[in-house]
């Protein structure tokens, strides 16, 4: 059963200013998280009335990062560095996410290794309709460096 997330997104991700692309983490559990973003003109990738569908991969990656950050915060630990290694089967039925649309990003961990590798199945929905899916592989090295606010932007 998923639990509502009480942390502000800025407490879960080290990204600052316009590099922080998602608005909030909504709910999560031991294996996944739901995040949301409303497409606005101040988004780093906004042009011609929207954000390209390809940015969906970064929305998914930041939702995974928020899940990891939430798990660290629940254990009273600082955020740690993680890396997006790649994606498989990215499919997006929309060339553009339009201004004002609210995207719901669902990430679910499928496996992980002791060495820090994980794969997540990810989906983006708008008004209950799935518009993008992918499998993202991420890596968090053992003994990962602790992140301070702004480190991810340097």
Please describe the topology of this protein.
Blueprint: E1 3-4, E2 24-29, E3 32-38, E4 46-47, E5 50-52, H1 56-74, E6 83-92, E7 96-98, E8 102-112, E9 117-126, E10 129-139
Query: What is the helix fraction of residues, given as a range?
Result: 10-25%
Distance between the termini: 37 Å
Low-pLDDT residue spans = none
Strand order of the largest sheet: 1-2-3-8-9-10-6
* N-to-C SSE string, H for helix and E for strand: EEEEEHEEEEE
Would you give an account of this structure?
This protein is mainly beta and 154 residues long. The protein is built from 1 helix and 10 strands. The chain has one helix at 56-74; strands at residues 3-4, 24-29, 32-38, 46-47, 50-52, 83-92, 96-98, 102-112, 117-126, 129-139. The strands form 2 sheets. A 7-stranded antiparallel beta sheet has the order 1-2-3-8-9-10-6, with helices on one face. Strands 4-5-7 form a 3-stranded antiparallel beta sheet, with no helix packed on it. It starts with a strand and ends in a 15-residue tail after the last strand. The model has no long low-confidence stretch (mean pLDDT 93).
Concise account of the structure shown:
The chain has 154 residues and is mainly β.
Please name the defining characteristics of this protein:
154 residues; mainly beta; seven-stranded antiparallel sheet; three-stranded antiparallel sheet; 1 helix
